[in-house]
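Internal ticket - ligand job 401, (2S)-2-hydroxybutanedioic acid:
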Amino acid sequence: IFRNVPLAPPDPIFHLTANYKADPFPDKIDLGIGAYRDEAGKPWILPVVQKAEALVVGDPQLDHEYLPILGLKAFRDASVRVILGADSPAVAEGRAVGAQSISGTGALRIGAEFLRRFRDAATTVYISNPTWGNHRAIFEDAGFAVQTYPYWDAAARGLDIDGLLAALRAAPQQSIIVLHACAHNPTGVDPTAAQWRQIAEVCRERAHFPFFDCAYQGFASGSLDRDAAAVRAFVADGFELFVAQSYSKNFGLYGERVGCLTVVAHEPAVAQHIESQLAKITRAMISNPPSHGARIVSRVITDAGLMAQWQRELETMAGRIRAMRQALFTHLQQLGTPGTWQHIVDQIGMFSYTGLSPAQCQTLIDQHHVYLSSNGRISMAGLNEGNVERFARAVDQVVRQ
Ligand code: PLP
Ligand code: LMR
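stdout (structure tokens):
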């Protein structure tokens, strides 16, 4: 009965990781998937996570019962404060709620499902061009037509703010606009505060609904508050909005799938109704979310001392990435590699959008055992003092070919 099922293509980024792992070359370099690596090229278990996990598993009250449908209450409430700020008026007024989700992806998915059911006027979702590879699939699977707004100005290697604003102006009223809260994936280019104000203005004029995707809070600048500035500015402006929060990157809890959909409504009663519908959606989709990772994060974000330690460790990760940007830029300059490379130090967050062509990327994989996405995106965390020069030399050769 399934003879007509076509073979689906593999996911590009997970396929790239599999190819990297299968490559026996000893000096191979993995700049593919966005996962933090330490100076030795190894995954980093944050010391604050080790500490919190010991507290979780050492708790004599620990059991493995189901969590409530919307997850761990302490985690949800604290997660809302992490993104909106502890002093947010939306929190004080009781019109912000959080629903625990299967990481950032799950938050986007339940948010999309809710919007399809209850945002009747919105038929179209706008995502940036380019964007994270999964955005289109998530919103199409929820039944939306997905369009793109311009984002990347290839010539200027920066944000195409005019194109972006024009597209949002031309979009049908009440469209859903997916915005990267910080550290845009894949470009590493974020709007400035003034540009965010322009985006907010157009969203207001056209009654668009902002759906923020926040997968890198703390990663862009090292500061949780600074990286939440765009979301908080929209809330201060009076928007109703969603934020999909992921704790994969900023806690290094990738496989534990910890996230939260934070909802800001105009009134507490509306927030409660939305919350009840998110529970209904979650119940049918996954019944209830997993507990382990949420318990770890909850320990940290509800404790001032652990919170301070987490912020120092975020700065460690962000700082090492910044140092690698500088090291790569310096090596390329020393080699006299043709082209301009300033964007490598100007971009922020996990990724750099190098401007290398798909053919150049393929040559890097085939001839140099350097693994990166075909769009020229590199995960900066894959670089370290031991491999950054080799990578720069490989880029230099490929660019000159
Ligand atoms: N959104 C963006 C922009 C991402 O880069 C990612 C990747 O991690 C996610 C969402 C969701 O990731 P996760 O489901 O692991 O939290
Ligand atoms: C990436 O873009 O590499 C990460 O965000 C991982 C993923 O899920 O794609």
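Auto-summary: Residues 34, 103-105, 132, 180, 185, 213, 215, 246, 248, 254, 259 surround pyridoxal-5'-phosphate (ligand 1) (CB under 6 Å). The chain has two domains: 12-44+318-400, 66-302.
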